[in-house]
Design goal:
Keywords: Membrane, Transmembrane, Transmembrane helix. The chain has 302 residues and is mainly alpha-helical. It has one domain. It is 77% helix and 0% strand. The C terminus is likely disordered.
C-alpha cells in the first residue's frame, strides 16, 4: 500500500472513531420524541438516498446499472451491519445509558476477528494483535466496572443488553462479508445501497410493531436526527467502508475501543458528568491496545 493511500485509510478510520463516538448521544436525543425503528428507518433511507444519488452523479456513465448495485450481496450486507447492528443499538437506548451501550459494542473486534479467522478462513490471529485486542477489552472492562455502579446501568433491561450484543455479532458478519466481496461499483454507491437496505428493514420492523408518533418531534430530536443522517451515516459510514477496504479487519474494528471513551468524555465536557481517575486509566489502556494492534496491522497487504 502506498503511503498516501495508507494516510487516507487511517484518516477514514479516525473519522469513524470520532464521529461514531458522538452518535450514541445523537441517537439517544433523537429517540426522545421519535420511535426508534422509525427513526432508524428515516435516518438510513435519507442518508442512503443522498449518498447513492451523489455517488451515481459523480461516477457518471460507468456501465454499472442501479439494479446490479442495489441487488449485489455487498449492498444487502447493509441489513446486517446497519439494519440489525446499528438498529439494535438504537432500539436498546430506550433502556440503556449511552455509555453502557457503547461499552457493550466493544465486543465487535473480537467477533470480527473470530468471524474472519474461522468463518472466512482469513488471516491467522497474530499474538501481538491478540494482545492488543485483549488490552482494549481490558480498558473497556474497567469502564464497564465503573458504569456498573450507576443505578440506571444496573437496572438496564437484560433483553436490551442481549439486543446490543446480537447486533454486534450481526455487524461483525456483515463487515467481514463486505471485506471479502468485491462491490460492483464505487464504495460510495455501495454505501448508499447498504443504507437503503437497512432503512427498508427498519421501516418494515416499525410497521410490524405498530410504531406511532405520540408527541410532536422536538427541535433537539430533529437536530440530532439530521446530525446522525449527514455526519453519522453519510460521512462516517462511507469512511468506514473505505478503511475496511484498505486496512486489516483487526485494526479497523478497534474503533469500538475509542467510541466509549469519546462518549464518556463528551458527557464530562457537555453534560457536566464526573470524570474519574479510573476512566482516565481505562482510556490509557485502550489507547495502548490500539497502538499495539496498529503496529502489527501496518504491514498487512490489502
Amino acid at each position: 500500500m502506498s503511503d498516501s493511500l495508507h494516510v487516507r485509510a487511517l484518516s477514514a478510520w479516525v473519522i469513524v472513531c470520532v464521529v461514531w463516538g458522538t452518535t450514541y448521544l445523537s441517537n439517544d436525543l433523537a429517540i426522545a420524541s421519535i420511535p426508534p425503528f422509525r427513526y432508524a428507518s428515516l435516518r438510513f433511507l435519507s442518508a442512503g438516498i443522498i449518498v447513492f444519488l451523489a455517488a451515481r452523479w459523480y461516477a457518471g456513465d460507468d456501465g454499472t446499472s442501479v439494479r446490479d448495485i442495489v441487488l449485489h450481496p455487498t449492498a444487502r450486507a447493509g441489513m446486517l451491519t446497519l439494519g440489525i447492528g446499528v438498529g439494535a443499538n438504537i432500539w436498546a437506548l430506550q433502556w440503556l445509558p449511552t455509555g453502557v451501550a457503547a461499552v457493550l459494542v466493544a465486543g465487535v473486534p473480537l467477533y470480527m476477528v473470530l468471524v474472519d479467522r474461522f468463518v472466512f478462513d482469513g488471516a491467522r490471529l497474530r499474538p501481538a494483535v491478540g494482545l492488543g485486542l485483549a488490552l482494549g477489552l481490558t480498558g473497556i472492562a474497567l469502564i464497564a466496572m465503573e458504569q456498573s455502579g450507576d443505578p440506571s446501568a444496573a437496572e438496564a433491561s437484560l433483553i436490551a443488553v442481549a439486543g446490543v450484543i446480537a447486533g454486534g455479532i450481526s455487524w461483525a458478519f456483515g463487515s467481514v462479508m463486505i471485506r471479502y466481496t468485491s462491490p460492483p461499483a464505487d464504495l460510495a454507491s455501495t454505501a448508499g445501497a447498504q443504507m437503503l437496505w437497512a432503512g427498508a428493514l427498519q421501516g418494515a420492523v416499525s410497521l410490524v410493531v405498530g410504531e406511532t408518533l405520540t408527541e410532536p418531534v422536538t427541535l433537539l430530536s430533529g437536530g440530532a436526527a439530521v446530525y446522525s443522517v449527514l455526519i453519522g451515516s453519510c460521512i462516517a459510514y462511507s469512511a468506514y467502508l473505505y478503511a475496511l477496504r484498505h486496512l486489516s479487519v483487526a485494526f479497523v474494528s478497534t474503533y469500538v475501543f475509542v467510541n466509549p471513551v469519546i462518549a464518556l468524555w463528551l458527557g464530562w465536557l457537555l453534560l457536566d458528568e464526573t470524570m474519574t481517575m479510573q476512566t482516565v486509566a481505562a482510556s490509557a489502556v485502550i489507547l495502548a491496545g490500539l497502538a499495539l494492534t496498529r503496529f502489527r496491522s501496518r504491514s498487512r497487504k490489502t
